[in-house]
Specification:
heterodimer, A: Aspartate Aminotransferase, domain 1, 2 domains, seven-stranded mixed sheet, four-stranded antiparallel sheet, B: alpha/beta, Aspartate Aminotransferase, domain 1, three-stranded antiparallel sheet
């Protein structure tokens, strides 16, 4: 019996101790007509480890083999070998939530180090132990801003159209039942940025927060100082949505404008977590110290034990569902512990220079890719703003058609902006440090062929 | 064990793990980024060598209890063995490197696994449709209650403002109801652990949107009146929500769909043996009855007539409650659950409920025999059960917390303590089907020894643990003098 250790003798001895005739007798409190006997016929027979492994090897191989230039919220990076070898050690992989602090100091110290890393990367004062992913993290940030902004009575938040539309959609789905409205701020179709002009209509109005995405979905860099100061001048909090790799090069949100962002969230995946079809990733979430009691999720504090020795423990638990129940800051009761552990190891291995070099190569490779592609007749950059590691290009043909043809050549050439932005000929592309010069050339050659066809 | 320094304390300027990152680029490669948007100083990440990192985190890992090291009888957490084969399969390069937005032409392998997993979960729960999108049990709950709300709203049934929840419920249940814009009304639980049916009848009405419950309940017993409860809630126009926290107890024996539940979530990190990872990631798929099919969260995997697989998203399922994450949920966890389901198959799935229930009832009887007090002595245990140490607390001053901490010295992870809230000084104990009889017996021996210590040396027990990396921690200091990030 896979994973079940009991021998027939064990079963007899156990039933004897219970005083029951059979295992079936242990279900005697369940009404007989409710029992599932015979109703599981659609389930297949069990397989051995060798058989399941072979099956899943075949499935995985079906999806391999293409060169990808898709970003749009998830990015392929080199992950040092040590990251997942350590993260999947049984002591991390099979541990529970660290409620028994004395028996969980490993996990607790890793979280404390993670919190420290995130504050240093974002320039913020405090961090939590992570939430599910970047998009759901934004929904938590929106709800948090409503609680934290005491000057505002509104249930409204301003969200730029140039934010990743998947973040907007997930946030909408999560907050809409609490009478929260997300109002859109337009982008400038020439620059691909969110201009101050687009905020004018909201001047003096009561909004709890302004969301600022740096870089935004188009890869464009926003004028974050001006946007931050505008929000604060209008009594709004600033929620920064940032790419963690970019923070090695870009002004950390804690230093945006005169006062810095108030809450910062983002997708942690670029920090050592594989693409893996969208998860498990982790969302990071930081804020100013004065808002820490409004922050959802697990938070670890450094303290001492009864002998005065340093130790780590869950703290501020009075915010959380297992204590506050219906009055909790959120229903969340996990963090993405394993992915967060991997990212802590990743950041430690890369260090300040390593992460800076990764970010620089991402930027330079994307610039180079955009140059190669725009050398093709009819292919142009859609926007004029400076970018980090993604660029929007317009094509002389519908994006969907071109992307499908490229995929036929095992080149995944980015994502189409047809549905979300009504830009039927536009694609969003990304390159990172893993792309070699020949990968970039491969894309250029393939695109040229597809457009010529 | 000694204090482990923080990784930041190992840092020396100029040290690095150079092979892990690409070489530095000339600054002119960055000239397209305006200077005023550039960071002034590099982020203060640690500057350490590769071996320092490996040794530091390996040493930290050794300070954890883990299923791979210890018996872990946490009630409602289902700490069963996490098959290593599942991890290897989910980490195959074809799965790891697949971008979530890769076209369907390059996703057939992954989609086929997800489509089959949806079907397995439907079959084993008796529900009509399953979405794998929620990333944790709490998000599954959110999706479930959001679907209940969408259902009532679509019918123009606007007056339903309340979610009913038995008082023994997990804290996530009321927190979830509030996140979905509902008021919470608690329903009392009787002395035998079953819901007070009369109180439920009195609480149900035109304001009832639904009832959230776990079965077997958090009292560790099967709710015998489940059909009467379903009838009561349905007659009032409400829907019935199944919290799958305790699905392991009945896997293959009874199906939530057959009990009358309209919507359920499953915790794959419990029932389907995916790792807890020190507090996540989990996966909390939802299953629904016929009438909630239009509202399932997206994306889901579908199959065309020609056998190929595709995504079902909000463009075709416009009534969906939408996306709960940027992409499709915790795919890597779902692949591990898929492995587990294929590995167990039909027979194995049925054995889960049987042997987890056998283990719990055996452990309960043995613990009672060495002097422990069961909270519901006249009931069959499900896959878990409650002990109460109210007597020890009163007579000896030794609390459930003290006993839990002392268990760590016996190399046994503590059970869930002080939950459910309605039983004083309690342990909620869940052994799971993967623990051997010898492991269960060792736990009994440890408990017998600690009860003896509580009688003869109570002051010692109150100071436990003694063998862990730290003694009991100063939680008050942690909360009052907040230290949430290291500074030199």
């Amino acid at each position: 019996m896979p994973y079940i250790p009991h021998t027939p003798d064990d079963v007899c001895a156990m039933l004897d101790a219970i005083g029951a005739d059979s295992i079936e007798a242990l279900f005697d409190e369940i009404p007989a007509h409710l029992k599932a006997a015979g109703k599981l016929d659609a389930l297949p027979e069990g397989l051995s480890e060798m058989e399941v492994t072979r099956l899943m090897n075949e499935r995985a191989a079906m999806d391999a083999g293409a060169v990808s230039f898709i970003g749009a919220g998830a990015y392929q990076h080199h992950i040092p070998a040590a990251v997942w070898e350590i993260a999947t050690r049984g002591e991390f992989y099979t541990a529970y939530t660290p409620y028994q602090a004395e028996a969980s100091q490993g996990t607790l110290q890793v979280i404390y180090e993670f919190q420290t890393l995130m504050t240093r990367l974002t320039g913020m004062e405090v961090s939590n132990a992570s939430v599910y992913d970047g998009a759901s993290g934004l929904s938590e940030a929106v709800l948090m801003a409503l609680r934290a902004n005491r000057k505002s009575k509104s249930r409204k938040v301003l969200v730029p159209t140039a934010l990743n539309p998947r973040y907007t959609a997930a946030t909408q789905a999560i907050v809409e039942n609490q009478d929260v409205a997300l109002d859109s701020v337009a982008f400038d179709p020439a620059s691909g940025q969110t201009p101050l002009d687009a905020l004018k209509p909201f001047e003096g109005q009561d909004y709890a927060a302004l969301v600022i995405s740096q870089p935004n979905f188009f890869g464009s860099l926003e004028e974050v100082d001006a946007l931050t100061d505008w929000a604060h001048a209008n009594s709004m909090l600033v929620i920064g949505v940032v790419n963690p790799t970019s923070l090695a090069l870009l002004t950390p949100p804690g230093e945006w404008g005169a006062e810095g962002a108030d809450i910062v969230v983002g997708e942690g995946q670029p920090l050592g977590v594989p693409l893996s079809s969208g998860g498990p990733y982790f969302g990071f979430m930081c804020c100013k110290q004065k808002y820490v009691r409004q922050m959802p999720g697990r938070i670890i504090g450094r303290t001492v034990d009864m002998e005065g020795k340093q130790g780590f423990a869950l703290t501020l638990q009075a915010r959380e569902q297992h204590i506050r129940r219906s009055k909790a800051t959120s229903n969340i009761c996990t963090n993405q512990g394993l992915a967060m552990t991997a990212s802590t190891i990743y950041c430690s291995l890369l260090g300040p220079d390593g992460l800076t070099n990764v970010a620089a190569h991402c930027h330079a490779n994307t610039q180079s890719l955009a140059d190669k592609l725009t050398a093709i007749a009819g292919v142009e950059r859609a926007f004029s703003a400076p970018t980090f590691h993604e660029v929007v290009l317009t094509l002389p043909k519908p994006a969907a058609e071109v992307l499908a043809a490229l995929a036929g050549k095992d080149v995944l050439g980015g994502v189409s902006l047809a549905t979300d932005y009504d830009m039927p000929n536009a694609i969003l592309i990304n390159a990172t440090e893993i792309h070699s010069e020949s990968d970039l050339d491969l894309f250029a050659v393939a695109l040229k062929e597809v457009l010529a066809a | 064990m000694s204090e482990t320094q923080l990784i930041f304390q190992l840092s020396q300027p100029g040290r690095s793990a150079v092979s892990q990152a690409p070489k530095a680029l000339a600054d002119d490669k960055l000239s397209a980024i305006p200077a005023h948007l550039r960071r002034k100083q590099k982020p203060a990440l640690p500057e350490v060598s590769e071996m320092q990192v490996v040794r530091h985190y390996t040493n930290l890992s050794s300070k954890n209890f883990a299923i791979d090291k210890q018996f872990y009888p946490l009630g409602s957490c289902t700490m069963k063995y996490n098959p290593r084969g599942a991890n290897r399969a989910a980490m195959l390069p074809g799965f790891l490197n697949r971008h979530p937005l890769a076209p369907e032409t390059h996703s057939q392998g992954f989609l086929s696994c997800m489509f089959e997993l949806q079907n397995f979960l439907k079959e084993v729960t008796g529900m009509k449709g399953v979405s794998l999108a929620p990333m944790a049990g709490a998000q599954g709950e959110f999706a479930g209650v959001a679907m209940i709300r969408a259902y009532h709203e679509a019918r123009g049934d606007e007056g339903r403002t309340e979610i009913l929840i038995p008082e023994a419920a997990h804290g996530t249940n009321p927190a979830t109801a509030v996140m979905c814009g509902y008021k919470v009304r608690e329903v009392p639980v009787g002395k035998d652990g079953d819901v007070d049916l009369d109180a439920l009848k009195a609480a149900c009405g035109p304001q009832t949107a639904g009832l959230m419950m776990t079965n077997p309940s958090t009292c560790g017993v099967f709710e015998r009146q489940i059909e009467a409860i379903a009838k009561t809630v349905h007659e009032a126009g409400g829907l019935l929500y199944y919290d799958g926290a305790n699905l392991n107890a009945i896997l293959g024996k009874v199906r939530p769909g057959d009990m009358g539940f309209d919507v359920i979530h499953m915790n794959l990190h419990k029932t389907f043996a995916t790792p807890h990872g020190g507090g996540g990631p989990g996966a909390g798929p939802v299953g629904v009855s016929e009438r909630l099919l239009p509202y399932l969260p997206t994306p889901m995997a579908g199959q065309r007539d020609d056998g190929s697989y595709h995504w079902i998203d909000t463009d075709t399922l416009e009534t969906s409650i939408g996306h709960l994450s940027a992409f499709m949920g915790n795919a890597g966890v779902l692949l591990r659950a898929y492995y587990y389901a294929r590995s167990l198959g039909r027979e194995g799935m049925i054995r889960v409920g049987e042997f987890s229930t056998l283990a719990a009832n055996y452990l309960l009887k043995r613990l009672e025999a060495v002097g422990c007090t069961a909270a519901y002595p006249d009931r069959r245990a499900s896959h878990e059960f409650i002990l109460t140490f109210a007597k020890e607390a009163k007579e000896l001053g030794v609390t459930a917390m003290d006993i839990a901490k002392r268990l760590l010295d016996y190399n046994q992870h503590a059970p869930t303590t002080y939950f459910p809230l309605l039983v004083p000084e309690c342990f909620l104990i869940e052994p799971t089907e993967t623990e051997s009889k010898e492991a269960l017996d060792e736990f009994v021996d440890a408990m017998a020894a600690i009860l003896e210590e509580a009688r003869t040396q109570p002051d010692m027990v109150k100071e436990a643990p003694f063998t862990q990396p730290v003694r009991r921690l100063d939680d008050v200091k942690a909360a009052r003098e907040l230290d949430l990030a290291w500074s030199e």
